[in-house]
Amino acid sequence: MKTLLTGGAGYIGTHTAIELLQHGHDVVIFDNFSNSHLEAVRRVETITGQHVPTIQGDVRDQYALTDALTQHGIDSVVHFAGKKAVGESVSQPIDYFDNNVNGTLVLLRAMQACKVFKLVFSSSATVYGTPSYLPLDERHPTSSTNPYGRSKLMVEEILADVHHSSSNWALTVLRYFNPIGAHPSGCIGEDPADIPNNLLPYIAQVAVGRREHIQVLGNDYDTPDGTGVRDYLHVVDLARGHVKALERLQHLTGPELQTINLGTGQGHSVLEVIRAFEQACGKSLPYIMAPRRPGDIASCYANPARAQELLGWTAEYDLATMCADAWRWQSANPKGYRG
Ligand SMILES: NC(=O)c1ccc[n+]([C@@H]2O[C@H](COP(=O)([O-])OP(=O)(O)OC[C@H]3O[C@@H](n4cnc5c(N)ncnc54)[C@H](O)[C@@H]3O)[C@@H](O)[C@H]2O)c1
């Protein structure tokens, strides 16, 4: 079994590559390196002791994809490639729809041409919009307030239509909650190119001295301490969820479309995360209160029961471990892969 990882050089892709290789799978990485570094793949090779064939290509290039699928004898794809910054998606909607939606269409076309019908897709809890109840299960209505979220919803709808159109496809949509942390080796981790959009890499950059203080965006939410609550999930747990999803797909003989949450089921507030990171790095971290970010919600956490039932997967790592691993990565690589 050989799996193509589109966007496999990125944060979640590299962690998934390690877990797949360590579970005896062959992987090929296909990435345009628009938000990643070849050095990350080299480190995956060092950690696993295995060579990882890597193709520099864009998922909107059908010929490059067809070539990769046939030359490497690929039988399944995990589709990570995409742009992921909510704020940027508001100012650059055309780029987001082109990359995330058009990119997926071109990938599906290439897969169909090469008779590769097994796909795992990286979706997001953002497709639930403003929760009408918690915890969020997969039956919760979907909606979106920004182009990034809409791009994920559009792809989910496209995959549903593709599934209905023929009996060939076996498709798994994974809705991630908030992946944080890093590989316990400290050799790979999250390395945002610009100012981090997400809380954890921002905190880590403050801890390492790259930024002055953390901004807590809103302290008047209807939550226990007034700050936003999210379901933080160790990226290694998330990666292992992909191994389970892929192994399930590879054993399937018939068509299927499953949508599965990957989260811990537990929410943590911004202030709790800051405190946990302070414990991990052994220093106090300056933060200031700032206004809410438009579009942000008070609380969001998963009902992970379906992942347990269908994949036999539950998250293992707690917040302290997530922060300790993130700190190990950030302190050993203050400038990320560029250093
Ligand atoms: N990190 C999160 O918080 C989060 C949460 C929910 C969903 N997701 C989704 O998971 C996926 C992976 O996220 P990540 O955090 O690893 O992001 P990332 O930016 O680290 O990885 C994405 C990778 O895709 C590559 N890429 C982008 N456009 C491409 C294209 N057109 N062709 C080929 N490669 C391309 C980038 O170079 C990068 O290596 C994304 O689809 C993202 O939307 C991420």
Automatic annotation (TrEMBL):
GO terms for molecular function: UDP-glucose 4-epimerase activity. Its cofactor is NAD(+). InterPro entries: NAD(P)-bd_dom, NAD(P)-bd_dom_sf, UDP_G4E. Pathway: Carbohydrate metabolism; galactose metabolism. Residues 4-325 form the NAD(P)-binding domain. One of its GO terms (cellular component) is cytosol. The keyword Signal does not apply. Belongs to the NAD(P)-dependent epimerase/dehydratase family. This is UDP-glucose 4-epimerase. The gene is galE.
